[in-house]
Amino acid sequence: MKKFTLILLAFLLSIPLSAQYKPWTSAKQPLKEIKALKKQIKAPKFRKADYLITDFGAVGDGKTKNTEAFKKAIEKCSAEGGGRVVVPNGVFLTGAIYLESNVNLHLTDGSTILFSQDSNDYPIVFTRWEGMECMNYSSLIYAYEEENIAVTGKGTLDGNSDLDNWWFWCGATKYGYNTSRPGRQNPARAKLHEYMANRTPARERIFGDGWYLRPNFVQPYKSKNFYMADVLVKNSPMWNLNPVLCENVLIERVKVISHGPNNDGFDPEACKNVWIKDSYFDTGDDCIAIKSGRDEDGRDIGRPAENHIIENCEMKDGHGGVVIGSEIAGGAKNIYAIGNVMDSKNLDRALRIKTSSSRGGTIENVFFYNTKVGAYKEAAVRFNMHYEKPGNHIPTIRNIWVENLTVDKGGKYAVFSDAYESSPVTDFTMINAKMVGVQIPYKVDYLKNVTLKNVTVNGQPLTELKP
Of 73, 193, 241, 326, which has the fewest Cβ atoms less than 10 A away? Predict the structure, then answer.
């Protein structure tokens, strides 16, 4: 017994301190962590050489398909050591664009890359669809295991999606679907869930033509040092900006306006060291949704969303402003949202954490600081452990810190929680929050270690959260 105790003690001492759960006791702690993290996240640097796509045969008339011109320019740029592939004024129609290492795809002011509506222009690649790995249409802009890549400039990326192209595949009549036209994703989505549950190798989960799984817009996959700045992104088939399993991601001054189905603005998935700042979102789904994979795929790969900063962003329409989940089976930790502004009668929640017992995983260390909210519909802060179907993997939500929150035109609840009795939301802190226009102060079930300091709802102090 003594020997076993010594072995156990040695094991516990071997665990790094950083891996041990320890809730914050002051905002100074996460603010210090943010300062250190910012020093690690940097934009890649590129060789000073420009490759004008018109020199490779591109024509900016909005009709000529320029897929080969983009491919040749990017390949030559990368082969010669990198630089900028420059898109001049004009409308350049193209199929999928593959970004190679050390290439900055630069859109000049007045330029538009218009993506083809023909699914044949998007080759089958290794990708993720709603957090599940598969072979499917390439994202409109895609990269796989590349380094030092960027999309910059004051031009426009137009996904060219509408009720007659891509969107109706979701199967909803409000997005153009009807039984007289082919195309509905539901059978393919069910098949992909089946593949995942059976742990069919990802490269054997082949979709594409006839399956109707819409591609995402921008998806660097297993890549390092991804930078995006200044561009306008609109009319995506599905998720807009979706780096997957990437490290060192910096997004700044980007504007995303896209109101189609599942048109999330920014979905970093199982990424490490991510900083998005000074950007604008007006979307048909979550403005920013942090993810780490769905169910078996998320748990088996086991990569959490880690070290994310969301700073000085503006959010309008969307299911949620800052959201963690629902494809969050790999977990999430160290998520810092600071200085953001949200305001829309169509915005459902300001901060939302959504997961389920089919996901599992641990979501911890979420810092929501200096946030100004105008209007929202459902809740300023929303915890949901019963999103979609249940399973056998009870999730954990802990160390959630909300400070300096103002709400001018609140919705139904200030705080809304739906958790498991066996796994309550633990260590929830709210400090200096002033919320007005709220119908019901709160609706909660299982919370543990709640701290409320200087919190008012409709002018009345909120001192406790009880079921």
Answer: 193
